[in-house]
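From the thread on structure requests for the teaching lab: each student submitted one protein with a one-line request. Submission from student K.M.:

"Model Cytosol non-specific dipeptidase from Flavobacterium fontis, tokens only."
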Amino acid sequence: MSQDVRQLEPKALWNKFADLNAVPRPSKKEERVIEFMKNFGASLGLETFEDEIRNVFIRKPATPGMENRKPIVMQAHLDMVHQKNNDTDFDFNTQGIQMYVDGDWVRAKGTTLGADNGLGVAAIMAILESKDIPHPAIEALFTIDEETGMTGALNLKGGILQGEILLNLDTEEDDEIDIGCAGGVDVTATRSYNEEDVPEGSLGYTITVKGLQGGHSGMDIHKGLGNANKIMNRLLFDGFENFGLQIAAINGGSLRNAIPRESVAQVIIAAMYEEAFAFEMQELINEIKAEYKTTEPQLQVTIEKSALPAKIMDLGVQEGLLRALYTAHNGVYRMSADMADLVETSNNIARVIVKEGQITIQCLTRSSVETSKFDLANALRSAFELIGCEVTFSGSYPGWTPNVNSEILKVLVAIYEKQNGQKPRVVACHAGLECGILGTNYPKMDMISFGPTIHGAHSPDERASISSSQKFWTYLLEILATIPEKSS
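Reply posted by the TA:
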């Protein structure tokens, strides 16, 4: 299947993407892809090294006639989100991505594709390997762990990069040029609870929420998609309020930056409520499905009898948990007052785990305004602290403030308009690009972000447009040829 991908145009781009996707590269486990990239640079005879955090750098001199142009940094991240469908047998730690062509799209079999940000990495690799593409002096920067903490960008020291312009190749709509992005902070609530014996005369049930689209918790947060953790909490709350439902375990969501698609809960009720419970819950399921019929047509909720669990959680703690999760904000919190249609602040209730006396709730709060980011984070903190949780903020990273007077922005807009007969959309995005972080140690660097069209990032429905990748490649080549001259 990947062989079909290798035949796509431009072959230089797709072959490098196929090479990259053969290497396992989940976040925080990038050892193999780091060595792969270092070997690639060395095989070209180019200066190649890594820094203390293991970001990889490859330097290539300017092509003849381009020595007087401003040196540039081409940047993308090496890691990818590892998400798969429940019925897909796949090990991200040992297997390469299994790709196939579907019309105008490249997809993966039951997993994320890794086009985010693998197509950006592949484009840089293709430029580094090229012998006939004009370009100024290039520093290729391949950062690590972008998806689960921006660790590579946060730990990149000043003084290493010499470029004056940074091209970040990590956006997902080919008619957009990004000049700003949101920052983020992880909000994690934990507490222990006492486990109790299951009362006599109880029945065990497994409640499953699945079939949701999921998606990127920044770029897709405004779409009104279902959050499996919030839907599950609604079911549990109703069961508790009306039938005294008690929880043994919850396992909801997966990654902090992915809208949760699935949740499973083990619960009990008193046997005398069996018939009424089944009727009431089905009514509620029908209502929820009706609410989400447009945005989540594949939503499935099942309630099946199962073996009684060994223990259940303390009833007082359970009530607090259900009420806190109902209260906790999920989705768009505030729209930008300065840029039309831009989400300013949002939260994703990404992970809910209740198991063996321990509660863990993980959220990712994003905002392009630092004060608003922590306003929402403190609102979440307050809700969880009221039920006795310890709440920590971690992994905070800044947003990227737009520079509408950017010199490289003017270059990109002019080239786009010449090639496509219309102006691009100049936007800020609600995702966490690394530009804002990199700019803290390189404040004078002129930064811009663009890329090919990728849909469904952070979910097994991730797909990359073939025609858009061709458009992106043509665009990138002219950008490299049109980099401004060095200041005199």
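TA comment: The chain has a mean pLDDT of 96. The chain has two domains: 2-181+399-481, 185-397.
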